[in-house]
Design brief:
2 copies of one chain form a homodimer.
Chain A (H helix, E strand, L loop, with lengths): L1 H14 L5 H8 L3 H8 L2 H20 L9 H9 L4 H13 L2 H24 L8 H24 L7 H22 L6 H9 L14
Helix pairs in contact in A: 1-2, 1-4, 1-6, 3-4, 5-6, 5-9, 7-8
Chain A binds a DNA duplex through helix 3.
Chain lengths: 212, 212
DNA sequence: GGACGCGTTGAACGGGTGTTTAATCTGTGT
DNA sequence: ACACAGATTAAACACCCGTTCAACGCGTCC
């Protein structure tokens, strides 16, 4: 049963969730009928895989540094070749957009907000006008960028070259990201000030949209 | 023939590229056989749709302002309800990652670089150390963020509520983005300087990786 | 020792897919 | 009026899908 689930994770990661039950069954050395007998349906199997991945991520997160956007966490995990299939699975999940993807981005946003708060308290992060919005922005930008990269260049990659590709991705982005974070992009504040003139200060009392 | 192609674009946009030929045929008021007779295969139909979208985008781009990341262009197009299905189609394309998606991101990156150069020349954009890398970073971040948002919250939306959702997305991101662009995120330069100490200056003579 | 339960199989089912084929309809030129 | 070409259709084909079902092997317990 665990072997079936692990084979499913590997297959889903490699070929996406459209892959057939029989292919998974062959990988696990069993029959398609047995798979659905154990997991009820293909969706049940997917749910079991999702649960396992969520548990793994949660466990691994406590062991590793994270910048709240998930990039560092996933990057570190992808470096360790053992975890590469899991990272691929997570990106496939983002690609198809199910419950797991929603939970992950939600959690990344929450983590980002936490890290922003810690950074502000430590005096290394410049406080913003709406921390929640900023956290959402950062996690969406970073996760989405990773997702797009994966869809365009990583989805068809062989599992053994995946860590190398991921490393390249992170390295390519390091300089522009650091530059933007420390120096900004614009020379003067006119655009921001104009925006602030026309829009009421953002965190205006309404603190109700947990996950849009 | 044009009616078939337009129906296919609408269906693809609404339900993704996994939708059956027969559904498209019914929408167009014809038979599945006729579709493949005209376009050779489902893939041929998809290619015809992609070509049409690429032409439309190229045509529309000359008429509208763009920030080089595509966000503004797509946002404006989504506002005009007439174009909402096209925007959905483009996002579906990004989601599945074919030739069109690659071409679009490539073009967005090129546009971004152009706009960065213009901004630097006009004195509103702070020059960076590697303009190409910066352009790639910005276009991937913005496009990817949009893609993730669409996958999580917009893919199942009804076409008539899509423009409103898109508007909300853009508004939610405006403040954190402007803040980051004008003020940066970090208080001091230590992180950037440390990075620059360990990595040779990036545009070190090698100007050969057109689209990674 | 027989009955039960569980893991497991292979074949079948029903449905959906893209594509093919033969026939029909329709219009147009000669 | 006839023939030819293109549009169009309905049916069939071959395949893959997820799921169901009846049977079998095998250990355990009473």
């Amino acid at each position: 049963m665990r072997r079936i689930r692990d084979a499913a994770i590997a297959r889903f990661a490699r070929d996406g969730f459209g892959v057939g039950l029989r292919a998974i069954a062959v990988d696990a050395g069993v029959t398609a009928g047995l798979v659905v007998h154990h997991f009820g349906s293909k969706d049940g199997l997917r749910r079991a895989c999702d649960d396992q991945m969520l548990a793994t991520v949660r466990a691994e997160k406590t062991k590793a540094l994270t910048d709240g956007t998930g990039t560092m966490l996933l990057a570190q995990m992808a470096m360790v070749e053992r975890y590469a299939p899991m990272v691929q699975y997570l990106l496939r999940s983002m690609q198809s957009g199910g419950d797991l993807a929603a939970k992950l981005t939600e959690q990344m946003t929450a983590d980002a907000e936490e890290y922003l708060a810690a950074g502000e308290a430590a005096g290394v992060v410049r406080p913003g006008r709406d921390r929640a919005a900023r956290a959402r922005y950062l996690s969406y930008q970073n996760t989405g960028s990773m997702l797009l990269w994966f869809t365009l260049h990583g989805a068809n990659a062989e599992p053994e070259e995946f860590p190398q590709l991921f490393r390249q991705y992170v390295e390519d982005l390091a300089l522009p990201a650091l530059e933007l974070f420390t120096e900004g992009l614009l020379v003067d504040r006119s655009m921001l000030d104009e925006y602030l003139m026309y829009v009421p200060d953002p965190p205006a009392g309404d603190a109700d949209n947990p996950a849009r």
